[in-house]
Each structure stands twice: as structure tokens, then as C-alpha cells.
Amino acid sequence: MLFRFFELLALSLVGWIVSKLLGFSQGATIFGPIAGIAIWVVWDGVRATRVTTWLQSRRYDAPPQVSGVWGDVVERSRKAFRRLIRRAQDRQRRLDEFLSAIQASPNGVILLDEQGRIEWSNQAASEHLGLDPKRDVRQYIRNLVRSPAFAAYVNRGDFSHPVLIDGPNVAHDALAEISLQMHPYGTARHLLLSNDVTALKRVESMRRDFVANVSHEIRTPLTVIRGFVETLQSLPLSEAEQRHYLDLMNQQAIRMESLVVDLLTLSKLEGSPPPAIGEWLDADELRDQVLQDARALSAVMGEGAQAIESFGETGVRVAGLRSELVSAMGNLVSNAVRYTPTDGQISAGWLRLPDGGVSFVVKDSGPGISPEHLPRLSERFYRVDRSRSRETGGTGLGLAIVKHVTQRHGGELHVESTVGGGSQFTIQLPARRVKQPLP
Ligand code: ADP
């Protein structure tokens, strides 16, 4: 303020001196200071205009060069603006980071305003509900999510539980299911969270089917055993008849035992880490062991007329868990024995693969399997020939075990079969689990 006063004083003094120099009369010298003051007012106005124009232009990085107190105003404003801009940038950066974290979330997030219009939505929510994150901003959510269940949920206003709706891709994938839940916040605003629960529902339904299947498989032999027990208790039977019934009961007990053993094997496979590449096993020995078991099974089952042979490479070593590999390979050869007629041929052996891996191949001349069954063979309790499976002591879990073991060893299970032309089951192991003999 003092500086402005001095500016004014200096200019009026200059005006007075100039009027004196110009030889104005005593009375007229007053016009000199007045002219000086007028010039100062105009000059000050020009500086004020430059400063306000700059403030209005918002080009805070290009301040005007003005002198005096206006220069001070410009400098202070520039510093204050810089602080404010930096703070705003900082806030924006934090907001961007926060939004990109929500964007990365597999859960859908939608912010709704007081009227239920979309303010912001992340990618996952857009995919769950078929929204366009940009185009659908400010649209009413109830107009975009047309499910009656969701409309009823919103009308009810009780958001303590989520609501399930069909996903937008229901036409292509009949199983897409989305869970939605509203969470109130702020003043009458809502956060709408969405979750794709399709996989969860599928697992739940698989678990229900599995429990139903296990119960059914156990109940059948139990019912048979109970029937025989009642017969033995209520009828006066000869010793030979009693022995016959006890044999039948024993068969059913064995069936139940096999089922429990296979279930335990599966649950052990699911609950343990994959076998490390530490133990190198002699592949010939594994093959010979399962073929020996197969010959014994073949002898027990029929007249033992099946021709069971080995073929392929020798001297290979494979890395894995012996018990698991013997169980998987054994399941394949025992299936071949069980489904091939007594005069059929069965062969099993190791073959090298071009990529350095090996395959354990089991071929049989059995009835073969029609193509529609092939993709489902390794599902638990899936059977093509139900009665043959039961008759021969099958549990319906053998190929599920084979597939599990193979995958745990980093390999793949393949099936080739034609009806009437026999079947070929292959366990393919990757090169890192194989040591080939030197050529
Ligand atoms: P199971 O204990 O019933 O044999 P698996 O899981 O081992 O169960 O096999 C599933 C189904 O695949 C069998 O029920 C059978 O119908 C079919 N299958 C398996 N191996 C053969 C084979 N070598 N020849 C014909 N069918 C087979």
C-alpha cells in the first residue's frame, strides 16, 4: 500500500516539476500533479486489467510482467495456484490409482447416484451386465438391467442379501449367473457389486451330483446285502445255499470296498501337491508289473484266453510317483481286460514322442466306444456299458483317477476308439519327466 502511495506521490511531484519547467503560472501548477495522478490511475488500471485478464485466462504458467504491488499479487497468486494445482494433481493421481485398482478387480463395481443412475462402472461390471462403461453413464440402472428379479429386489429395498440374475450372454452360454448386491453409502447413493457365480454354481451342482452318485453306488450293494441277510435269517437254508448267499454278499462287500478305495485315491490325489521330479522309475518294470496284474485278472475273470502282450520301447526312465503311475497304468490295462472278450487281444507298452516325451499305450480288440461318449469317459461315475462295468467290478472312477494322475504328472490322457474296432488309451508324459536311453 505504501509503495502505491509513493508511486502516486512521485508522479504528482513529477507533474508539478514539469509544470514548473514549462513555466506555468503559480495557479496553474496544480494541473501538473493532477496530470501525474491521472497518468498513475490509467497506468494502475492497465496493470490491474493485465492481472485480471491473466487470472481469467487460467494460464497460470504464463504470468504477466507487471511492476509494483500488482507484480507482488501476480507472484503470490502464481505460487498459490501452483500449490493448488499440485494438490489437485496429487488427488487426481490417487483417484486414478484407486480407480485402476477397482478396475483390476474381478468383482464388478458400479457407483449409482441418488436417482439410481450410473456414475461410474468398472470393466468387470460392464461384462457381467452387458453395459458400456462410457455410453451408459447417467443411465438408470433399472432400465439397463431388465431382469424381473433385479426390479423386485430394487423395489423391495432390502439389500441385506444379494440377488441372482442371468448374465447377458445367456443366449450363448446358458449357464451364466450373476450375483448382484446393493450397498447404500453417502446420502442415498448406492454401490452395486456384481459377481460371476457361474463357476461356483457349477461346482456346487457337481458336488451335489457327486454326493448323489456316491450314495447311490453305496446303497445298491447295501440293499443287496440286507436282502441276503434277511433271507439267511428268515429261511431254513441248506449249507450249500447258505454258502451261495454268503458268496454273493461277499461280492457286494468287495464292490463297496473298491468304491471306497477309489474314492479315497481320488481325494488323496486332489489334496496333495503334484509329484516332484525326483524319483526316476524304470518304465519297463512299471509296464511289466501292470501286465502281470492284468494276466492274473484275466485268468480270474474268464478262461484266461485273452492274449496279453507288451510292445514298444525299452530302457526308458520316467520321473513320478510310483504308486500313482502304477494305479493309472493298472486302471487302463484292467479296463482293457474287463471290456475285451476272452478271445481278444490286449497289448501295452511305451512309445517315444518326437518332442522327447513318452506315451504309455494300451490297445485292446474289445467292443470299442462310440464317439459321443469319448469326451465324457473320465467324468466320475460316467459309464458307457453300465452292466458290464458292474459285472466286472467297475466303480466308474477308474478313468477319473487316470486323468488326475496324468495331469498331476504334467501329461495328457487320450482315447481313440471305434465301435467294433477296439480302443486305444494313451497316457502322454512330457519330456521333462523322461530320460530316454542313448540311441
Ligand atoms: P469303470 O470302473 O466303470 O470301468 P472307468 O472310469 O474305468 O469306469 O471307465 C469308464 C467307462 O468307460 C466304463 O464304464 C466303460 O463303459 C468305458 N471303458 C473304459 N475302458 C474301456 C475299454 N477298454 N473298452 C471299452 N469301454 C471302456
Write the layout of secondary structure elements.
Elements (H helix, E strand, L loop, with lengths): L1 H20 L9 H27 L10 H37 L3 E5 L5 E4 L1 H7 L11 H4 L3 H9 L6 E4 L10 E9 L3 E8 L1 H37 L4 H33 L8 E3 H19 L5 E6 L4 E3 L2 H18 L5 E8 L5 E7 L21 H6 L6 H11 L3 E6 L5 E7 L4 E2 L4
Parallel strand pairs: 7-9
Antiparallel strand pairs: 1-2, 1-5, 3-4, 4-5, 6-8, 8-13, 9-10, 10-12, 11-12
Helix pairs in contact: 1-2, 7-8, 8-12, 9-10, 10-12
The site of adenosine-5'-diphosphate has 22 residues, from helix 10 and helix 12.
The number of distinct β-strands equals 13
List the helices and strands in order. Answer: HHHEEHHHEEEHHEHEEHEEHHEEE
CATH architecture assignment name of the largest domain: 2-Layer Sandwich
Q: Provide the structure class.
A: alpha+beta
Mean pLDDT over all positions: 91
- What is the CATH class of the largest domain? Alpha Beta
Strand order of the largest sheet: 2-1-5-4-3
CATH topology of the largest domain, anyone? Heat Shock Protein 90
Helicity range:
40-55%
Give the N-terminus to C-terminus distance in angstroms.
101 Å
**Rg (C-alpha, Å):** 44 Å
Domain count = 4
Query: Main beta sheet: strand number and arrangement?
Result: 5 strands, antiparallel
Q: What bound compounds does this protein have?
A: adenosine-5'-diphosphate
CATH superfamily of the largest domain: Histidine kinase-like ATPase, C-terminal domain
What does the overall shape look like?
A: elongated
> Strand content of the residues, in percent?
15-25%
